[in-house]
Amino acid sequence: MPTDHRRPQQLATRAAFFVPGFVIAAWAPLVPFAKIRGGLDDAALGVLLLCLGLGSLVAMPLAGALAARLGCRRVMLGSVALMLATLPLLALLSSPWLLGAALLLFGASIGAMDCTMNIQAVVVERESGRPMMSGFHAFYSIGSLAGATGATLLLSTGTAIVAVTLVVAALALLVTALSAGAWRADRAPRDAAVFALPRGVVVAIGTVCFISFLAEGAMLDWSAVFLHEAKGVDVERAGWGFVAFNLAMTATRLVGDRAVARLGRARAVLAGGLTGGIGLAVATSAPGLEAGLAGYALLGVGCANIVPVMFSLAGEQTRMPERLAIPAVTTMGYAGVLAGPALIGFVAQGASLSIAFVLVSVALVAASVLGAAIRIGPGD
Prior knowledge:
Helix content: over 70%
Mean pLDDT: 85
CATH class: Mainly Alpha
Structural class: mainly alpha
Strand content: under 5%
CATH topology: Growth Hormone, Chain: A
Oligomer: single chain
Order of helices and strands: HHHHHHHHHHHHHHH
């Protein structure tokens, strides 16, 4: 592909990462409101949040198959349409059953977008001839930071939560309209397989992503609840924990490609897991809002480059074609989003939310050790 065609696709891929990060982060400050509106305890909220992960998990293999047949652009456009249609419902519904159904559709749209944009990102990175994956994922974090910050600021000024979701939807629609023309439309050959179970090194890559996504999901779904209930932060300001996490993750990912090139993938992943595990432990055990925000920021720094490195490895391994490996890794990763919120809720109900967070921090360190040991070679 000529060089002058690559730049628009690179910019459009960054925009594709921005949109789901922006939209789903706007949900984070709304979780305490949904819990109060539905009269839910920790366990019930965990079950409800399971719907978001379940929707993502089911949609990802389907999205990979559709992208192979229809091209990434069509699948991403359909995904954006569904996520923007369901977001306002999350601010309106009070019935746990209806809210669960809306979260199922919302999760499906996010999962389909995440899977397909990573398929596009692997191809665009390879055609560029240089590391770009951390930079692409940085724009997911930028979107998350913008969504969480904007929603929290609007809520802090007394804006109705439905109005907040409509503002987020309008801005995401604008970004999509400006970038979708450069999203990739190429398809797999008609006789090519469109689905396969993960195997070989892809299983290890997916396992690391599972735990990293679980940690990120803990911040999305439980950080505001923890600050409000365990540290006594006003519900309107509890969203700042997720903002601190995203700000640190965004800054780290913006320099992530250079950091990974300098440290090497193994050391970058190991250092990230150790930093993130320590950060979550600090946020959980140290008293006061300031310590909590500092710990969440360390977790953001630690998690920042683990998943981008894993997706780059998934694009380079030879055990599975990338059009099959990326959906498999994405699905395994988002199984962490599926299992994480519910498991955290059950542990919080049976013991405490603090203990649940400590267990997540230990798992993150273990995942980084596994990720650092992964090697790509003949036969994988």
